[in-house]
Amino acid sequence: MKRRHFLKGLSGAALLPIMSFPLLSCADDGVQSTSTKKTNLNTRMPEESEAHDATWMAYGATAQAWGTTGAYGASRALARRNLMNIAIQLSRFEAVKMLVSPNDMTEAKALLASLLHGNTTNTLTLGSGHNAVLPNVESGGKVELISQAVDDLWMRDTGPIFVSDSEQQWHGVNFNFNGWGQDDTGAAGWRRDPEKAKNGISAQPIKNDKAVAHFILQRTQTPELSTWLVLEGGGIEVDGEGTAICTESCILNPNRNPNRTKTEVEHELLRLLGVQKVIWLPGLKAQDITDGHIDFYARFVGPHRVAYGLDNDPESPEYELTHEHKKILESATDAKGRRLNLYPLVAPDAEKVANAVLSRNNWSDNLFNENSFAAGYIGFYVANKCVMMQQFGDPKADAAALKTVQALYPERTVLQMAADGLANGGGTIHCATQQQPARQARG
């Protein structure tokens, strides 16, 4: 159960011009989002399982970010194939909008067409839910490729977070993506964590990705809410009823929010997202590029229900941490004072995962990222009528995780698939997706 350790460190690439393409992309509508900083917003961030209008993704894993040699370079093509396959499977249930750099558009269109004409179900395992059906894939109609320069694929972190207010108006929060703490925010006391460099975690180009949140809000004609708070979407989990789970290692970090207290952060989360209570887990600094995002450790799966990652290998660097998280969650209550119902997702056996991944991808040993392969079932994504989760090659653990997630979402179709390119890059399906909630009245 490991996380994104490092990516290829290069200087930031210049922002490429926005271009329009006829087939699956469409031109910028020119609508400007407005940036505001209001008080008493009375906003609410919906829980992920609520209805979506679309899922946003990015055709990242660029050569500038991942390089062209070594384990990351070797994983690039597979990661992109994973991305497109995820998009196709999601498109059975909801619209998918994928940002693609102009110079990658031809490749992305060809890959989409190729996968659509192939067998799109031969890599899937379906759960046994009450409504475990697999709608037909439309011929690309629900996967929209949009021309916009990106650096990488982690849309969960670079995209905006959508919130609705008491008047059923939608806003989007731009949380000032700074490359997981690598870019100086200008805040007094900001500093890059030197431990990351000592641990081999390099900076990567982020200039294009810093513009992603604003671009999406502009395109969706959503007013933009500004904030001093720096975080990524993978750094916060909400239940839609006033409770959030976060890690201290990520948000309360001088590389993001220097000299800010828990109270200040909590007040800003209340203002922006309607969060009335934060359950803080310690997380882990400087051991992966994200500083321990919560979406690799604990996820809400409904009101006062939390799934959490658990590593039972005493030799694992995350054994003690995940068991500490378990103890904290066992004693925690939500914003309404309810104790949490907890559901562990036990990490797969590391050796079995390595053997399976090397075998099915025909990789040599040096291409498997032993210290960063993200083998955690907690990185599932909940979309309209479905859940997408990963399979890692430990048959017993894979089956147990699928059974647990299906039990948590009995009315949804659960799709389990290998996404070794993403995992070898240190991320999950959840890291590569960001929901746009349905624009309807709040529940």
From TrEMBL:
Residues 1-27 form the signal peptide. One of its GO terms (biological process) is putrescine biosynthetic process. SUPFAM superfamilies: Pentein. The keyword Hydrolase applies. Keywords: Hydrolase, Signal. GO terms for molecular function: agmatine deiminase activity; protein-arginine deiminase activity. This is Agmatine deiminase. It comes from Ephemeroptericola cinctiostellae. The gene is aguA.
